[in-house]
Write the structure tokens for this entry.
Amino acid sequence: MQHQSLFVFDIETVPDTDAVTNLVGLDPHASVAERREALDAYHLEVTGGANAFPRQPFHRVVAVSFLAADIETDGKFETYFLKELRSGGDEKSRERDLVAGFFQWVDKKHPRLVSYNGRGFDLPVLRHRAMVHGVTAAAYHDTSNKWENYGSRYALDDHCDLQEALTDFGAASRGLKLNEVCAVLGFPGKFGVDGSQVAPMFDEGRVSEIRDYCETDVLNTYLVYLRYQLTRGRVNKDGYNRAVADVIALINAEREVRLHLGAFLEAWGESSNNTFLFD
């Protein structure tokens, strides 16, 4: 399928404590802290003490951030035109609204999805939470084209999971982190906040800060994707520079209102020695 748009996305989650009483028979009146502790204990038990991180169904989505860009094709090269960078919903949005908004965008636009570990985490979480809330995700599940669909692991033009692409689908550097790739390429990576802080921030009502953090992860993912496409020969140097210049222009236009974007650009300058484009 020839996609007309990119949809670079990331989600942030907190543990779903509502399901814990059903899972382990905990007292329904137990506190959130007690439920989280029980959820951790359960996952430690089922993994033989290796990992307390909840499996995908036990994550509640609190932020969905994305970058949308149009794709124009000229021969073998693609050019990307940045349209927006934002987070779905608002401070009062329910999880159902966030999940439904994501799949409605996929249904409407049929974009090329771009993520980092989206196949291993983000999309399974979104799929499970769609089932929780009765959200339809028809286009995402469409497998009428056997080889080119969102569920096909090797269909990078439908969903490019950069972690998979950059590790030869797990054959090399299994578990390679976005932050590690960014460090090598001169992109900011994570600064100020990391995923371990999301649940405490959510408890404190700092949802807007979570969304800001999520948006910087989306920017990092897009920049890595641009470099990957340049290396693949799908984008030429002029197209790469144009797409990066679009990112810088968006940040400069909005940095006074969206302070996290200005902080991202400053961190990018420090990481790259203020070298953003290729000569």
